[in-house]
Each structure stands twice: as C-alpha cells, then as structure tokens.
Design goal:
Helices cover 33% and strands 18% of the residues. With 526 residues, the protein is α/β, with parallel strands linked by helices. The longest helix has 24 residues. The chain is elongated and about 80 Å long. The structure holds ligand TNX.
Length: 526
C-alpha cells in the first residue's frame, strides 16, 4: 500500500519531465485546418483540431500487425514521400505506439465497424496514426495522408516543405465495395506502362477494381496458349492499322500483382458472341462457313458473331475461360455479351447460358453487359448496366447484382462538348459536372441500393491512341467517379466539389497527367 503511494508521484514526475523535454525540443506548431483540405473522395466523417504534425527526416513509419503486408504498405508510403521531401523514412515493426514525431500504421483486426476498406486516421501534434481492420483500410488511410500534405508532396524533385499535416480525426469507409474503371486495350492496344500508370492514379483516389476489355473485333490482347493464333493473328493490329499488341500470360500476371499491391482487383473481359472478329480472323473453324474473316481495323460494332451452333465454339470458350481463370485470382470473368446484333436471339440466349456454365465450372462468377439479362441469371451473376433500364430491371428480377455504368453518365469515351478533340457522342456529351451529378441508386427506377454493388467508368478506345488521349478523357472525370463510389451521397455537392477538384491541378501536373482543363472548374493556379 505504502509503496503504491510512493511510486505514483515519482512516475508522474518522470512523465512530466519527459513531456517537457519533448515539447521544448520541438518547434511551435503552425495552426492548420484539416477541414479546409480539399480531400477527394470526401471522407465519411472529419473533425479538425486546428494544429499540425510536422513530418521531418527523423519521422519513422511504424507498423503494427501482419508485418509483411504492413511493411509493404509502409514501403509504398515511404516511396511516395521520398522524391519531394528527400527523406528516406525508416520503417520499423512495433507492438505499441511509437514516440512523438512518427507515423503509426496499426492493423487492428478488432476494429471492424468501418468494414473491410474503412480506416481511422488520427493526426495529433505528436503522431499520425492510421488504424484499420484490414490492410486495404490502411492503404486508403495512406492515400488520405498523401492528400493532407501540401500538393508539392507529389513532385518528382526535392521541394522546400515544411511538411505539415493538419491535426484532427477522420473516420472513413466507402459507400460501395465496387469502384471500378475499364480500359479497352482492344480497339487500340495499351501496354504494361500505360495500364500500371492507370492503376497508380486510380489507387490515389481509392478506386479498387480495374476491368480490362481484352478482346474485340479489332484485337485479341491476351495470350491463350491452347489457341495461339488468337494473338499471333488477332493481336497484330488495331483501329487505323497500327501494330496492336497483346499481353503474355506472364505480363498479365504481373499486372494482376501490380494491381493487388494497390488493392485493385482485375476483371478480365473476353467479349462474346459478338465483338469477336479478331478471333474469327484467327481461326476459320469459329465461323459458320469455315472461313477465316479478314482482320478488321475500322470502328463499326455489331457485325461479328461466333458460330454458336458449332460444338467447337464451346471447346474454344472453355479453353479461353480455363486459361484466364487460372491466372485471375479475383472472383469474376466478364464475358461481354453486348451488341450481338449478328447473333439471332434464339442463338444468343442458349449461348450465354452455356458460357455461364463454363465460367462457373472454372470457379468464377460471370459478369455480362446488360443484354445478358435475357439469359438464365442467378444470385452469382452480375450485370453491367450501360444502356437499357429494361434489361437492368430484368436482371435484378432474376436476382443478379448490378454494376452501374450508364453510358450517358459514366462513359469516359464521351466527348465533354462539341469541341472535344477526341471522343464519341452517341450517348451524350458529358461535361465534368454532368459526370459528377448523379446518384447510382436513384438513376433508374426499380434498380436501387439493394441491387447495386458499385459503379464503373468505362474508357472505350476507338478514338484513343496515346497516353495523352487517355489523360484527356479520363481526367478529371475519373476523380468524380471515385468520389461517387466512395463518399456518402449526402456529402456530395458539385458547388463544393468543384473547388476540391480544382485544387487537384498541381497534383495532376506533378504526375504528368494531361487533363482536360474544363471551364466548369475554377482551376487553382500554382
Ligand atoms: C458501345 S458499351 C459498346 C462498345 C463501344 C462503345 C463506344 C458496350 C457494352 N458496347 O463496343 O466501344 O459503345 O462508346
């Protein structure tokens, strides 16, 4: 008893002395307002406390829990912070909170209230703490931390600093678990670097899925070892007659891993029975007349079909799905099914039903464009709505889940306005505000929150030839789709979003993104 009373004042004295030394060694903290930071996607909740944390060369990144994966996320953060700060931040695993001045990434499996992707970020003058139940949440907290630092943090060369993080608490989690973008690598081929860059940028805005449109009339872009002509013949060109290209299975695996390291799931699409000229040109037996078609470098859609009455078609589909499933860790295979105008409806439905069985037999779930609503769907099927509300309602009536990609709102290949230098406009002109101002669960009567797993913004590449063309159509619209996918609807408002978007300009410039400088956005000049 007596001992207890003796030790207590002594302990307190030590604590007080310790605090006095740490505080006196530190510079006074500049005031900063976390609530004024232009975060995108806007977090579910944020409370600012008015002061700041200072990142210095002495700051370490401490990780608690699942050391290998946490170490990788810490390494990712250190790599992102290095060029602009010039600091090589030390990374260390720990079991308790680090000393003041450090960043603490704390995996806490019991903190499940914010779900699989949620995180809590607490910034005090002493520490930056990101905690989450799953590594994905830690990764998204890291993205928020990047945005809380000055925009110069994204520069490729050393900048002046000071590297201040405003203090406060963010508790955040996504509205939808599926936040996706599609890149069509078939109409024009885009290689490893373009796809990786696409993923890097998506990850910065917390998107978690990338759909690769790997085959179409103009090109077959994934190696299938049992049907080698698909790439040897079908992969050798593209729209306009360029050289095309394809991913070997090894390259595809590298992309899948690159994506996984950024908490992005890859969904491969092989479009069928239409959009198949590249396959039909590669193998005569896939055609009803037994003759290979000519390779196609134009822009038309809806003229090709696999010969669905031939048994070889199903051997072909089985091989393709089997090989693709073996290199795709994610649960989905997308089988297209859109615009099969050259396939009779009485052939289309049994074809898709059989393809569905093949996909299931390889342990995967089928996704199809909205036309697949006409087939025998079930609760494991997902339908991607792009054009038809009626097909959408049919799909949900059959129990299928929905991905919302309405062409009038979410097609990245639509022109912004009549003056856009590339893009199509068959669905709409989609200015940056129009791309942002819609609610996926309120767009189509009969398709609501209980049906919708998320959204996908699709970039078809008929008019997209180079990296700078991707940038022009995708940015800044993709940033808005990221916010639609993540943030609560009640927090979204174009009049405030446009200022947050404007403030992304220096970051986009630092990344070398050649975005469309829409007049609707009050761009912030440096
Ligand atoms: C329709 S959307 C298509 C694509 C085109 C796109 C151009 C869909 C499922 N099919 O084949 O590339 O329009 O905007």
């Amino acid at each position: 008893m007596f001992y207890k009373y003796l030790i207590q004042p002594f302990t307190w004295l030590l604590v007080a002395l310790g605090l006095a030394t740490t505080v006196s060694c530190q510079e006074p903290r500049p005031a900063a307002d976390m609530a004024a930071v232009p975060l995108i996607p806007i977090p579910a909740s944020l409370t600012a406390t008015g002061s700041s944390f200072l990142l210095t060369e002495k700051t370490g990144i401490y990780t608690a829990g699942n050391t290998e994966e946490m170490g990788r996320i810490a390494g990712y953060l250190a790599d992102k912070l290095k060029p602009a700060t010039g600091f090589t931040l030390a990374i260390e695993a720990t079991e308790s909170a680090p000393k003041p001045g450090n960043i603490y990434l704390k995996l806490d499996p019991s903190a499940t209230v914010l779900g699989d992707e949620g995180y809590t970020l607490v910034v005090t003058e002493a520490l930056v703490t990101i905690s989450a139940a799953k590594p994905a949440g830690i990764f998204y907290g890291v993205q928020t931390l990047r945005q809380l630092l000055p925009a110069t943090i994204e520069a490729k060369s050393t900048q002046a600093g000071p590297w201040i993080v405003p203090t406060g608490t963010i508790e955040d989690q996504p509205r939808f678990g599926f936040r996706s973008s599609m890149l069509d690598v078939s109409r024009h081929f885009f290689g490893m670097d373009d796809v990786k860059r696409y993923m890097d940028l998506m990850a910065g805005y917390k998107m978690n899925t990338m759909h690769l449109h790997l085959s179409d009339d103009q090109g077959w872009r994934i190696e299938i070892k049992s049907w080698p002509n698909l790439t040897a013949i079908g992969g050798k060109t593209e729209i306009g007659g360029g050289e095309g290209g394809f991913f070997t299975q090894e390259q595809y695996k590298e992309l899948v891993q690159y994506a996984a390291d950024r908490y992005i799931l890859v969904i491969p699409e092989i479009d069928m029975p239409g959009h198949t000229n590249a396959a039909l040109a590669s193998y005569p037996e896939l055609n009803c007349d037994g003759k290979a078609t000519k390779i196609y470098t134009g822009r038309e859609v809806g003229f090709s079909t696999l010969c669905t009455s031939k048994e070889v078609i199903y051997a072909f589909v089985d091989s393709v799905v089997r090989e693709l499933a073996a290199i795709t860790p994610g649960p989905y295979i997308h089988v297209g099914g859109d615009e099969s105008h050259a396939t009779k409806k009485e052939d289309y439905i049994p074809f898709v039903n059989r393809v569905h069985t093949i996909v299931t037999s390889h342990g995967k779930q089928m996704i199809g464009w909205d036309e697949t609503a006409q087939t025998d769907l079930d609760a494991t099927s997902t339908v991607q709505l792009w054009a038809s509300p009626e097909f959408g309602r049919q799909a949900v009536a059959k129990g299928a889940k929905m991905i919302m990609s309405p062409a009038t709102k979410a097609y990245l290949d639509m022109q912004y306005d009549k003056k856009s230098r590339i893009g199509l406009h068959w669905a709409a002109y989609i200015e940056v505000d129009s791309a942002y101002i819609w609610d996926p669960v309120a767009l189509i009567p009969g398709i609501g929150a209980e049906n919708i797993i998320g959204i996908e913004a699709a970039l078809w590449t008929e008019t997209v030839e180079e990296t700078k063309d991707i940038d022009y159509l995708v940015y800044p619209r993709l940033i808005g789709y990221a916010e639609i996918g993540w943030s609560p609807q009640a927090s979204r408002d174009w009049e405030t979003y446009k200022f947050r978007l404007a403030a992304q300009a220096p970051r986009l410039k630092a990344w070398g993104v050649d975005y469309y400088p829409s007049a609707k956005v009050p761009w912030k000049q440096e």
